Amino acid sequence: MNLVPQVETAEISDADLELVSGGQTVGASLNAGIHAEPGALGVHLEAGNLGLTGGLGAAVSPQGVSADGHLSATLY
After folding, report:
1. DSSP labels for 24-60?
2. Model confidence, pTM
3. What are phi and psi for residue 31, nearest 5 degrees?
4. How far apart are CA 51 and CA 30, in angstroms?
5. What's the N-to-C CA distance of the chain in angstroms?
6. Which of 41, 54, 63, 76 has its CA 20 to 30 A from that of 12?
């Protein structure tokens, strides 16, 4: 006699799985953020499944001036 509970399983499509697993929604959305601190400024933008992040920074010391910048793209 088998006393282990049985669970019925079913196939689910990728689209249905995205809806229940917190995946990307159908349609476009636009999100933006700006972050700043002394000597640095950054921007982050998201549109649909694409994210862009960029930033600039600068510092002054007795040895001289340093600056940097970055830009990155993410496809979700």
Report:
1. PPSS--EEEEEEEETTEEEEEEEETTEEEEEEEEEEE
2. 0.54
3. -130, 145
4. 10
5. 48
6. 76
pLDDT by position in tens, the chain (length 76):
677 777 777 787 777 776 666 655 555 678 888 989 888 999 999 887 889 999 999 999 999 999 999 999 998 7
CB atoms within 10 A of CB 45: 14
CA distance 27 to 4: 43
For 45, the token pair is: 């933008």
CA-to-CA distance for 57 and 59, rounded, in angstroms? 7
Q: How far apart are CA 25 and CA 32, in angstroms?
A: 18
Dist. CA 31–CA 48, nearest whole Å: 9
